[in-house]
């Protein structure tokens, strides 16, 4: 009980200092809990949607997949006779044929795409009774003819649509127009999909290309018949293995698995950044308790003198840490829920609708947050607590402070150097690896080892690095600058730990900046070297035939190249199979993409019954020019194709691609199975580049789902995409940097308290308040620049190593983004200035006489 009382007294005696550390715990726990609540809410949203849209039992084509559109661009379908058969099965209350396609684009009368901008699909189909599970018509009526359409309310609100407006639907079977006659609202949250409904005959004709076919059949069970039993009955009626028959749960599970990988990426990426924030927070907590222990040296000595044991002293500090962890974690759990709501609002503004009605806080979420916060805080406080227990009564009463074990410091330094050396060796091994998959594991080990090594060796580096920074920056400030330097050097362990917190975040920023810049530079270099086409047309969906025709009839073009991804299984001469498919293109593609070959000529691959393979495939399967590969086309026949060329896979464009001609593909694929173009290329006639570019853009205007780009546009878009990704990562890393700033604030605040008497004496002999504040600000700047210098140097080393690995995938250019690196370094100085504002202000307000009288 005495230990608890002492701990409580000390905890509340240092409320301000504890509050700063509590903020670090709060932010870290909030990020973890916010991530869990956000992803759980997304799961709940999708679970409710999939459960509401799935019938008791669903029948679909045997090979149909919910997330897969066949290569011909039309959904897999089955004859309407299956519906009549299904109705005969025992236990069927009702059955209804349905049509659904996600390979469509819907535009309004102004040619604006009605689809979501966040990747959610546009879904077109027929209106059925099953849709009443998840939708209700809130305005107008259901469509009844070929010129009528109904749209979901979310899309109508977002794009200001109303009854009577005309929509154009673009599918591989052609374009067709219809006027809005009804608006239907979701009964559950719609995550962002745009949905349009037609009558059954129109949906069959326009989406499937023929009437009398359905993509699936929705079956409702009779009273007292379970879904499992109904599935058995339907399977027996249709014949086992003939069609895919699923219960409501199985359909929902399949749909859920389609979005599961996307959800996992979001979840684990955000948890990774939360882990970084926790790591940075550890340094703040260690610093806080180290300085609190140092300030209570005499008090600890008195406690030891009157009979307190080392364990009791140790326990007292750990109890304070537990109180801090509990306090910060409880607030963090609450803040995490608020963060999740904020993320939902952001996602909604980007097009992914998430409702707070589905807000999901599982019982495990606060438990995980509390455990993490408390355990991390107690572990961080363990070393200061252990040092407090080692203070001898006599040394403490003499105000000798915590023991400064030079031998222990030397051992730590040696351990840090060994770990850093081992990490550097791992980075070198990664940079010289022959395979990216092998090198990535070594790279990860190198990053971890060098990071830990730099953290441990930081106090040793502080002396030299701070002196160099001070020589460059602080000499101009005269005696005040020299005092700031001495203060930063006074406790190298504290300076090292404070700088390490900032180092971690900036190391990751520098690493990702180097990788991102190198990716852009490599891709740009590869484009300049390899791409001969003047224009590139592509979009999120395959290029429909009518858009292809519009491109081919554009004036000013010397040629247009079609490029199709074809599903096929290859069998090499060694008997091994590979189902990653082949690429069918026009012969002009050999000019549009100047692929280097290690054997043969690429143009020969577009001859009769010929193809090319990549050098990696050729090496792995011992394939050479003149060999014959067996190619089984999906839903087509099997061909024997002769290897006419082997392309060099030392590239980032079309790496590993296997080319054949469109004529060869058509020979072995039925006409209704030929895929639309994945991408198209064009070359302008000599001297007509500008005119052809303008004409091509005009020709493709009716199809806003596709982008027309010249090489300059393509490079800029690549740069913008990488930039957007990096900005998102930097935003998440900002949390770690905020915690690091709190660490600097805490260190300076405690340092000011520790030097209260010294500050009073300096003020008494003539140091002005302005000079005092400047001294503290300069000390903060030096500490921040120390951490920035280590972090940026370490991060550039990581980034350069990562680029060497990426070079194995064709990204051969190392580009250091010096403006970003220099900007971050200068920004770190301002971070130091900002962190020093409050400590400097408080120091300047000290009463001189009271400060001198402080014991």
Question: How would you describe what is shown here?
Answer:
This protein is of the alpha+beta class. The chain folds into four domains: 1-54 and 267-403, no CATH class; 63-241, no CATH class; 459-532 and 709-855, no CATH class; 545-702, no CATH class. The chain is 57% helix and 16% strand. The protein contains 26 helices and 26 strands. Strands 4, 5, 6, 7, 8, 9, 10 and 11 form an eight-stranded mixed beta sheet that branches. A six-stranded mixed beta sheet has the order 24-19-16-25-15-26. Strands 17, 18, 20, 21, 22 and 23 form a six-stranded mixed beta sheet that branches. Strand 22 and strand 23 (638-647) form a beta hairpin. The two termini are 29 Å apart. The relative contact order is 0.11. Residues 399-405 have low confidence and may be disordered.
Q: Summarize the main sheet.
A: 8 strands, mixed
Number of helices: 26
Based on Cα principal axes, name the global outline. globular
**What percentage of amino acids are in beta strands?**
15-25%
Rg, alpha carbons:
34 Å
How many strand segments? 26
Which runs of at least 5 residues are low in confidence (pLDDT < 50)? 399-405
Distance between the termini: 29 Å
Give the helix level as a range of percent.
Answer: 55-70%
Structural class: alpha+beta
Overall pLDDT score: 85
Instruction: Please tell me the total number of domains.
Output: 4
Keywords: Cell membrane, Membrane, Transmembrane, Transmembrane helix
Pfam families: FtsX (PF02687), MacB_PCD (PF12704)
Membrane topology: Multi-pass membrane protein
Organism: Streptomyces siamensis
């Amino acid at each position: 009980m005495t230990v608890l009382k002492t701990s409580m007294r000390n905890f509340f005696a240092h409320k301000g200092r504890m509050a700063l550390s509590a903020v670090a715990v709060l932010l870290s726990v909030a990020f973890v809990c916010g991530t869990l609540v956000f992803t759980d809410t997304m799961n709940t949203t999708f679970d409710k949607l999939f459960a509401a849209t799935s019938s008791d039992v669903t029948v679909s084509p045997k090979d149909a997949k919910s997330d897969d559109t066949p290569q011909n661009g039309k959904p897999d379908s089955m004859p309407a006779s299956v519906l009549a058969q299904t109705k005969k099965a025992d236990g069927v209350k009702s059955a209804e044929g349905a049509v659904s396609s996600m390979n469509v684009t819907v535009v309004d009368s102004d040619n604006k795409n009605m689809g979501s901008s966040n990747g959610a699909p546009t879904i077109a189909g027929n209106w059925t009774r099953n849709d009443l599970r998840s939708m209700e018509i809130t305005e107008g009526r259901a469509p009844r003819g070929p010129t009528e359409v109904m749209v979901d309310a979310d899309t109508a609100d977002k794009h200001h649509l109303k009854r009577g407006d005309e929509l154009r639907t673009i599918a591989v079977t052609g374009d067709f127009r219809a006027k809005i006659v009804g608006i239907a609202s979701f009964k559950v949250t719609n995550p962002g999909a745009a949905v349009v409904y037609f009558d059954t005959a129109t949906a069959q004709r326009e989406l499937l290309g023929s009437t009398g076919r359905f993509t699936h059949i929705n079956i409702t069970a009779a009273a007292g018949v379970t879904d499992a039993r109904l599935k058995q009955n339907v399977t027996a009626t249709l014949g086992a293995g003939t069609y895919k028959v699923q219960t409501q749960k199985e359909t929902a599970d399949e749909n859920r698995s389609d979005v599961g990988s996307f959800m996992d990426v979001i979840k684990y990426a955000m948890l990774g950044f939360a882990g970084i924030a926790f790591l940075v927070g550890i340094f703040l907590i260690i610093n806080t308790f180290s300085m609190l222990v140092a300030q209570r040296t005499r008090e600890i000595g008195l406690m030891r003198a009157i009979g307190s044991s080392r364990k009791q002293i140790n326990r007292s500090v750990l109890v304070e840490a537990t109180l801090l962890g509990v306090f910060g974690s409880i607030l963090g759990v609450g803040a995490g829920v608020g963060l999740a709501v904020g993320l939902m609002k952001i996602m909604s503004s980007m097009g992914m609708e998430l409702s707070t009605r589905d807000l999901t806080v599982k019982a495990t979420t606060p438990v995980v947050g509390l455990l993490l916060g408390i355990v991390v805080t107690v572990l961080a406080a363990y070393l200061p607590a252990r040092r407090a227990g080692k203070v001898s009564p006599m040394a403490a009463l003499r105000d000798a402070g915590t023991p400064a074990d030079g031998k222990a410091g030397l051992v730590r330094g040696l351990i840090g150097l060994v770990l850093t050396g081992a990490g550097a060796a791992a980075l070198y091994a990664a940079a010289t690896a022959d395979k990216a998959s092998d090198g990535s594991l070594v790279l990860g080990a190198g990053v971890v080892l060098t990071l830990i090594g730099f953290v441990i060796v930081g106090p040793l580096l502080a002396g030299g690095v701070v002196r160099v920074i001070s020589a460059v920056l602080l000499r101009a400030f005269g005696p005040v600058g020299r005092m700031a330097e001495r203060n930063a050097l006074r406790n190298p362990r504290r300076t090292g730990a404070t700088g390490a917190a900032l180092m971690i975040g900036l190391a990751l920023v520098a690493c990702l900046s180097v990788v991102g810049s190198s990716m852009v530079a490599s891709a740009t270099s590869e484009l300049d070297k390899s791409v001969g086409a003047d224009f590139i047309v592509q979009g999120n969906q395959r290029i429909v035939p009518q858009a292809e025709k519009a491109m081919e009839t554009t004036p000013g073009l010397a040629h247009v190249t079609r490029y199709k991804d074809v599903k096929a299984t290859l069998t090499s001469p060694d008997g091994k199979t590979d189902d990653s498919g082949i690429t069918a293109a026009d012969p002009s593609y050999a000019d549009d993409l100047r692929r280097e070959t290690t054997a043969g000529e690429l143009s020969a691959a577009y001859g009769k019954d010929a193809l090319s393979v990549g050098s990696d495939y050729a090496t792995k399967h011992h394939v050479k020019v003149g060999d014959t590969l067996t190619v089984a086309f999906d839903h087509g026949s099997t061909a024997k194709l002769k290897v006419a060329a082997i392309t060099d896979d030392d590239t980032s464009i079309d790496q590993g691609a296997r080319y054949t001609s469109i004529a060869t593909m058509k020979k072995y694929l039925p006409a209704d199975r030929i895929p639309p173009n994945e991408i198209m290329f064009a070359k302008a006639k000599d001297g007509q580049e500008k005119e052809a570019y303008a004409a091509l853009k005009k020709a493709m205007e009716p199809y806003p789902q596709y982008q027309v780009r010249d090489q300059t546009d393509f490079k800029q878009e690549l740069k913008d995409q990488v930039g957007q990704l990096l900005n998102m990562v930097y935003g998440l890393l900002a949390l770690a940097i905020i915690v690091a700033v709190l660490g600097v604030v805490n260190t300076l605040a405690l340092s000011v308290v520790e030097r209260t008497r010294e500050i009073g004496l300096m003020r008494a002999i003539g140091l002005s308040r302005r000079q005092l504040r400047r001294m503290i600000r300069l000390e903060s700047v030096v500490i921040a620049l120390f951490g920035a210098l280590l972090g940026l140097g370490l991060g550039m080393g990581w980034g350069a190593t990562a680029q060497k690995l990426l070079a194995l995938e064709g990204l051969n250019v190392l580009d250091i983004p010096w403006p970003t690196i220099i900007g971050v370094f200068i920004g770190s100085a301002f971070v130091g200035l900002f962190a020093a504002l409050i400590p400097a202000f408080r120091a300047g307000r000290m009463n001189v006489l009271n400060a001198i009288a402080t014991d």
